[in-house]
Amino acid sequence: MVPVPVDLIRQWTSAVLLAEGLTPDDAYIVADSLVFADLRGVSTHGMMRLPTYVARTRAGGINPVGSISIIADLGALVVVDSGHGPGAATAMHATTIVIERAREHGIGCVIARNANHFGASAYFTNQIADADLLGVAACNTEPVMCAPFGGAPILGTNPIALAVPLPRTGRPQLDMATTTTSQGRLIMAALDGTEIPLGWAVDSRGRPTTSPQAGLDGALLPMGGHKGFGLAFAVDALLALAGANVSTGVAALHGDDSVPQRLGHLLIAVQADAAVTLTEYQSSIQGLIDAVHASGDGLDVPAPLVPGEPEISRERESGGFIEVS
């Protein structure tokens, strides 16, 4: 493994995507989203995704010049078609709309159909929080999650993210799959030849397994049993409002590269200063952060953290370098 400066990786990745037909702006957004994930230690959504994006673009599953078009405009609520474009790029364009609408109406919501895999959800909620708004993002995937107690895959990992408008260096930020773990971690374990913990997945017969390949051939387990399954179902229900496919209609990211995924994206931005000042809101959240940190005082436990702190620490420790082989 060799540490490489982030700027160099971003520049090289952008050049690769430009060569595949993406516009300069879209190539930069996709490259930046991959670098963002790797810097934060979320390598399942980092540079390991680039070969898949390239293969799908060459085969036709991703339209390199696909862009969003507005299908319905209700002011605070906008429904768009992503035109099978690069997921991170079209989601970023939707993020721009949602920020504008939140500033105008107090809340903005964009739901997209005919979209592709957009990588780390936190990339988009961060952009919203940078605009001093509370950001929410969700999307769905092809069926990889079984119903509680095991079985055939029926719902996607359907991640949910939320970011609070505090400075990035101390920003609480939720970004989670509704499965016990992400599919990417099974892929990485299979590539590394390592086992996975029991409770992550079941094999094709619905039996608990420690084999990542058996888990990929079978199904991921929902986080918290019926609770994670219910959240994943809720994400599908929200995305269907735009006419997006629910999980059972989404094409596999690692399947036929010529077939667009046709999944859905959900982006929400909310003004943080509607009832209190932004400073008052931030102070309230900071008080909650401080209370979480203090909750382990005097106890023989690791220091309690709020969502997003492990990723912030990894990004700080990276020093602006990503290790590549």
Question: What is the compact description of this entry?
Answer:
With 325 residues, this protein is of the alpha+beta class. It has ten helices and 13 strands.
Question: What does it look like?
Answer:
It is a single chain. With 325 residues, this protein is α+β, with helices and mostly antiparallel strands. Helices cover 38% and strands 18% of the residues. It has helices at 6-19, 24-39, 50-59, 87-105, 122-130, 183-192, 212-217, 226-239, 278-294, 309-318, and strands at residues 2-5, 69-73, 77-81, 107-115, 133-139, 145-146, 153-155, 160-163, 173-176, 201-202, 219-220, 263-271, 321-324. It has a 7-stranded mixed β-sheet, with helices on both faces. A two-stranded antiparallel sheet has the order 1-13. Helix 4 links the parallel strand 3 (77-81) and strand 4. Helix 1 (6-19) crosses helix 2 (24-39) and helix 2 (24-39) packs across helix 4 (87-105). The longest helix has 19 residues, at 87-105. It is globular and about 50 Å long. The chain starts with a strand and ends with a strand. 48% of the residues are buried. The mean pLDDT is 96.
